[in-house]
Amino acid sequence: QVQLQESGPGLVKPSGTLSLTCVVSGYSISSSSNWWSWVRQPPGKGLEWIGEIYHTGSTNYNPSLKSRVTISVDKSKNQFSLKLSSVTAADTAVYYCTRARGWNWGQGTLVTVSS
Amino acid sequence: QSALTQPPSASGSPGQSVTISCTGTSSDVGGYNYVSWYQQHPGKAPKLMIYEVSKRPSGVPDRFSGSKSGNTASLTVSGLQTEDEADYYCSSYAGSNNLVFGGGTKVTVL
């Protein structure tokens, strides 16, 4: 059974960098032909695709966030990560990691951008 | 890329059917058969209900069905049950390795 678990700071200062990690269990990132994605949801609002990474390291990003986003993978730890730079209050959201563009989801983690 | 358009709300009585639309363009919904639908209960992560327009993952009741006509995809929930009350989101491949979501529809079981 595939399980994904997000972790990282719940509070980030404006202009700082948001960093999250998604640990995958029950499924090997390196042996699969899946894309591993990040999706966010501002409080009370809808879902927004942030970007994704393949086990080879190939990435795709939402054009509206591309200049600030980096997604990386650590196959040895079976995890992938998100970095979002120059954050503002508008980046406050629940951040989810997913497998295969939505087949499995982590429980989500709330990140608040505030001083 | 713009978000797909969904009605903000929909409702039906138990046992009835409700259909939710998801309108995009020929660059996303209309151009690819990669439309998915997700169910999200309050405080929970989304759950995949439909993929590739009309396919159901194992374990999803056959009361849930998907279809597409032109630039509009639809999710129909037949035989509404109280546990179907939730937010529903569509998503579509939008070309150039991009994904786009709809704004979400709140389904209320009257």
Would you mind describing this structure in some detail?
Chain A has 115 residues and is mainly β. Chain A is built from no helices and eleven strands. Chain A has strands spanning 3-7, 11-12, 18-25, 35-41, 48-54, 59-61, 69-74, 79-84, 93-99, 104-105, 109-113. The radius of gyration of chain A is 13 Å and the shape is globular. The termini of chain A are far apart. The model of chain A has no long low-confidence stretch (mean pLDDT 95). Chain B has 110 residues and is an all-beta fold. Chain B is built from no helices and nine strands. In chain B, strands 1, 3, 4, 7, 8 and 9 form a six-stranded mixed β-sheet that branches. A three-stranded antiparallel β-sheet of chain B has the order 2-6-5, with no helix packed on it. At the A-B interface, strand 5 of A face strand 8 of B.
What can be said about this structure in brief?
Chain A has 115 residues and is mainly β. In chain A, 0% of the residues lie in helices and 50% in strands. Chain B has strands spanning 9-12, 18-23, 35-40, 47-50, 64-69, 72-77, 86-93, 99-101, 105-109.
User: Roughly how many Å is the radius of gyration of chain B?
Assistant: 13 Å
- Into which percentage range does the β-strand content of chain B fall? 35-45%
Helix-strand pattern of chain A, N to C? EEEEEEEEEEE
| Mean pLDDT, all residues of chain A | 95
Protein structure class of chain A = mainly beta
Number of helices of chain B: 0
Low-confidence spans of chain A: pLDDT under 50, at least 5 residues?
none
Key phrases:
heterodimer, A: 115 residues, mainly beta, 4-stranded antiparallel β-sheet, B: 110 residues, 9 strands, 44% strand, globular
Set down the secondary structure blueprint.
The complex is a heterodimer of chains A (115) and B (110).
Chain A (H helix, E strand, L loop, with lengths): L2 E5 L3 E2 L5 E8 L9 E7 L6 E7 L4 E3 L7 E6 L4 E6 L8 E7 L4 E2 L3 E5 L2
Parallel strand pairs in A: 2-11
Antiparallel strand pairs in A: 1-3, 3-8, 4-5, 4-9, 5-6, 7-8, 9-10, 9-11
Chain B lengths: L8 E4 L5 E6 L11 E6 L6 E4 L13 E6 L2 E6 L8 E8 L5 E3 L3 E5 L1
